[in-house]
Amino acid sequence: MRGSWRAKVRDDEPEYAPVLPNPPTWLTREARAEWKRVVPHLESAGLVAEVDRSMLSAYCEAWSEFVSAEGVLRREGKTFTTEKGYVMQHPFVAIRNKARDDVRRFAQEFGFSPSSRVRVTAPGSSERDDGTGKERFISRAS
C-alpha cells in the first residue's frame, strides 16, 4: 500500500475481454471526436474494454465541456463589467476550470499523461514478468 513493488503484484486483478465499446449516441460532436481520437490509442495499448464505456464517455464529455467553455472565454473574455462598473470574472472561467480538472482526473485513469502512463499497465504487457515484480528493477539494455 505504500508503493513497494510487491504491492503492484496483483494476481487476483480482474481482466475484461478487450472488446471495444461503442460510443454512446448522446455524445456531443466534440466528445465524439475525442472518443475517436483516444480509443485507437487505448486499443493499441490493450487498455480498453466494453466495461470502460461509461468512464470514457465521462472523459469525452468533460473534454467537450472544457473546449466549449474555452471557446466562450475566447469570444467574450475572462472578465466583464457590471452595470455598476465593477470588473467581475466571467462565470465560464469556473466552468472551464472545473471541466479541466475533470479532464485531468479522467486522463490519469487512462494514462493520458506522461506521469500517469508509468502507473498504467496492460494485462500481459511485461515480457520479463516472472510474478515477482523484479522486472521493474532489471535494465532492458543488454
- Quote the average pLDDT: 82
- State the low-pLDDT regions, or none: none
The succession of helices and strands, N to C, reads HHEEHH
Strand content: under 5%
Overall geometry: elongated
Q: Which strands sit side by side, in order, in the main sheet?
A: 1-2
Assign a percent range to the helix content.
40-55%
Extended strand count: 2
Task: Specify the structural class.
Answer: mainly alpha
Number of helices: 4
Q: Give the termini separation.
A: 32 Å
Rounded radius of gyration (Å): 20 Å
Major beta sheet summary: 2 strands, antiparallel
Q: How does this model look, in words?
A:
- The protein has helices at 29-44, 53-76, 91-110, 114-117; strands spanning 79-81, 87-89.
- It is elongated and about 65 Å long.
- It has a domain at 49-116.
- The chain is built from four helices and two strands; from the N terminus they run ααββαα.
- α1 (29-44) crosses α2 and α2 (53-76) packs antiparallel against α3 (91-110).
Tags for this model:
142 residues, mainly alpha, two-stranded antiparallel ribbon, 4 helices, 45% helix, 4% strand
Topology:
Layout: H1 29-44, H2 53-76, E1 79-81, E2 87-89, H3 91-110, H4 114-117
Antiparallel strand pairs: 1-2
Helix pairs in contact: 1-2, 2-3
